Amino acid sequence: PGSSHRGSKSPGLREVCGRPAAQPERTGQRDRGKMVVLSAAIVSSSKALLARQFVEMTRLRVEGLIGAFQKLVDAGRDHTFIETETVRYVYQPMEALHLLLVTNKSSNILEDLETLRLFAKIVQDCCQTQVNEEIVLKNAMDIVFAFDEVVSFGHRESVTLAQVKTYTEMDSHEEKLHQMIEQSKINEARETAKKKQMELKKMRGQEAKAGGNPSMSGFGSSDAMASPGGMGGAGGAFQESMSIGGSSFGSSGISSGGGGMDSSVAWTPSMNEDSAATFKPSSGPKKGMALGKKKPGDIFGGMGGGEAAVPEAIAEAQEESHPVVNPLLEPVKVVIQEKVSAVVEAEGGLNGEATCNGSFDVTVLDHAKADLVCFKLAPQSQEFKYKVHPSLNKASQAKNILEVRDGQASFPTGGCLKWQLRTSDDSFLPVTMSCWPTPTGDGTQMVLELELTDSKAVLENVVISFPASAAARPTVTSASPGEAEHSGSMVVWRIPTFDANDGSGTLEFTAAADAASLLPASFTAIVTGSTRCPMDILECYHQARKDAIDFVCEKRVLYDITIGA
Which of 121, 199, 234, 469 is most buried when burial is the number of CB atoms within 10 A of its CB? Predict the structure, then answer.
């Protein structure tokens, strides 16, 4: 019940609204007989905090309508609506603020009130604790986006609060799948980069090894400057000292006719005891040994040390060219994983089909032993549809053997075999769930029954979540087995392990909200050690050498079930 205020006798209202009374709102004239919401706003006593228009309107027009409402509303009275000559104001007090709908007069006021109640729930959910000017302004964009999901082009959409929250969260399975694919591409690119890096290191090591002999032979290959004699006894001793270290400097052309030096060699000796000599050949390999400063009397002592430095560098490069392999790990790691997705009714039973997607992922940790790894599998179930990696032999896969095609250098990293199954059989899921919502004086009492239908299944990390904002004041009455609590905007029930020893479980909680806003709920769980598709490895061996290869295998199934969608 509410009161109606007519504004036909007020010339001031006609001036504020911007049009004469004989000219109704054009949108209302066009959609006469239909529900049209012109605008939704949250206003205080002095100003409009936010306003969302659902039809084409000027800003001046919107400000005029909201300003007229602030003059017409009576403080301290819970009016339901106010009518003027052109529009109807449907509003609801929210603490010190007003939630306002501006509609045309031909709209259905019952539907307007229902829309207003849904808007009020949205505002409460977005503001969480209390509705005041500061919190509304802080969450203005979230409120506007949620309003857009309820009203489209002035007409109410058939949505609930839970659906609005799902739409605004924009949680997309396709996006998650795309991100997983992109991440796998990034990982594959990293593996390729590592392989290229190892190949480059190996090439550099080979180049260093091939270039070591000319640099060690030094200037012994230069015969243009060779001339025996010249320095007398001192020259013979000098040539003998130059031959130490394996380089034939005795014939490298250090000579003096009559005690001088050959002009073809830039020889600048500083035979003092305080400095070292510098030897600059006019020709010869550019990559040779560099002679640095040494102690007096040992000016050529570095020649012997330079010869050993190059083999050390070669050995270091060869060591870096080989990837480090952990001897404690098996050469091959296999991960067989599946994801089962389904939607079940709130009362129990599948809604549509359950989908099982699986993959056979291989990671080769030791390429020296398992670059061409090969798997012999147990006979595969024909209920599933299989897809094999393009690098593998499809004819061999039909015989339950996973091996690479001819011409492939190594086994593909990541998913090499995928499969899928769609079924409408309720027994495919290991559990059944039933929701029992009961209306109470101040909200809803929700009871969830969980029952294990597969006695062999051991579910780990079971998490069941119900949407419930803090404004609904959810309270957990009981949860067995496991524990339940209100976290964020969800009531979360966690069970570490759910097996035949438990058999069944019950969650009970209350919230100041209707049953529709507490759904859909979600169920997630993991089963390790087995998969729905029989996938057992009988043998693992090298495709070329046929010798057995040790491997480690992990199996897991992820269940992702939506309740009451």
Answer: 469
Strand partners, 490: 467, 487
Amino acid (1-letter code) at residue 161: L
Q: How far is CA 112 from CA 3, 72, 514, in A?
A: 15, 19, 19
> pLDDT at residue 225 above 80?
no
- In this prediction, residue 533 has a pLDDT band, given cuts at 50, 70 and 90, of very high
d(CA 411, CA 312): 35
Side-chain half-sphere exposure of 441, counting CA atoms within 13 A: 0
539 touches 548 (CB < 8 A): yes
Cβ density class 211-243: b for 16+ within 10 Å, e for less: ebeeebebbbebeebeeeebbeeebeeebeebe
- Interstrand relation of 332-344 and 551-563 (parallel, antiparallel or unpaired): parallel
Using alpha carbons, select from 512, 446, 452, 457 the residue that is nearest to residue 484.
446
In 95-158, where do the E strands start and end?
97-104, 151-152, 155-156
Cβ–Cβ < 8 Å for 388, 557: no
> Phi/psi at 42 (nearest 5 deg)?
-120, 120
Instruction: Say if residue 271's pLDDT is above 60.
Output: no
Task: Give me the pLDDT at residue 79, please.
Answer: 61
Tokens of 56: 């084409």
- Mean pLDDT throughout 528-539? 93
Q: Give the residue among 41, 31, 52, 19 at the shortest CA–CA distance from 100.
A: 41
Q: Would you say 370 and 364 are in contact if contact means Cβ atoms under 8 Å apart?
A: yes
Mapped onto helix, strand or coil, the DSSP state of residue 396 is helix
Residue 501 CA to its chain's centroid (Å):
36
Give bridge partners of residue 342 from the DSSP assignment: 561
DSSP state of 482: S
- Using alpha carbons, list the distances in angstroms from residue 402 to 262, 348, 364, 408, 530: 73, 40, 14, 13, 20
124 vs 137: CA distance, rounded Å: 13
At 422, phi and psi to the nearest 5? -120, 130
For residue 316, what are the contacts with CB-CB under 8 A and spacing of at least 6? none
Q: What is the pLDDT of residues 105-119, one digit of tens each?
A: 888 888 888 899 999
C-alpha 188/C-alpha 368 separation (Å) is: 19
Question: Phi, psi (5° rounding) for residue 522?
Answer: -130, 150
Return all residues near 521 (Cβ < 8 A) that are at least 6 apart.
435, 448, 464, 465, 466, 467, 562, 563, 564
Length of the chain: 565
Q: Burial code of 427-440, b = ≥16 C-beta within 10 A, e = fewer?
A: ebbbbbbbbebeee
Cβ atoms of 332 and 550 within 8 Å: the answer is yes
